[in-house]
Amino acid sequence: MKGLPQVQPFSFSSNIKIGEKISMVCNAQKGDPPYVIKWLKDGIYLEKNVDINIRIVTNDVTSTIFFDPVNSNSGGNYTCEMKNKHGQDSYTALFNIKAPPEWVAVPHDLTALEGGSATLQCQAKGSPMPHVTWISEDHKILSNSSTVALSPIERVHAGKYRCTADNGLGPPLQHTVTLTVHCE
């Protein structure tokens, strides 16, 4: 059909960071105006959304989405949907943001009985997802994951353990905990 809209492909930059201000324009590559243009994030229609700090400005032929500023909830699949009297078209682009690590669960000191068990946990988020490492006070790597399970607990397990979460953006997160072992 001659007047059917066709959305011009668009893409987000791959190095956008939290705090930056960006915009993306949805234009028709083909078709007859006027258009009804809507934006969707992850398949849900967008209006002004406080969680992702957006503003949308639309007229009969184009629509611009403004992120002011980009925050940790801004990432996702963004679709521009365009309709006219002849039909509709849409185009979707992935918006990946870069975010330094943040704690989801800060590790805490533990006390365990000799012969029992203990689990050290450290959870962080970011984009890309941070790499989490547990290191003992004698600098041995215990785990390259968010959890270290110690069982059965022995006296030699008592001491300090450091969790590090790093994704290459900003300084790595680090937290040291103490494991106390009580003997029966």
UniProtKB/TrEMBL annotation:
Name of this protein: Ig-like domain-containing protein
Keywords noted in UniProt: Disulfide bond, Immunoglobulin domain, Signal
Source organism (scientific name): Cordylochernes scorpioides
PANTHER family named among the record's database cross-references: CONTACTIN 5 (PTHR45080), IG-LIKE DOMAIN-CONTAINING PROTEIN (PTHR45080:SF8)
Cleaved signal peptide residues: none
Pfam families registered for this protein in UniProt: I-set, Ig_3
InterPro entries: Cell_Adh-Cytoskel_Orgn, Ig-like_dom, Ig-like_dom_sf, Ig-like_fold, Ig_I-set, Ig_sub, Ig_sub2
Ig-like domain ranges (all copies): 5-96, 101-180
Tree of life domain: Eukaryota
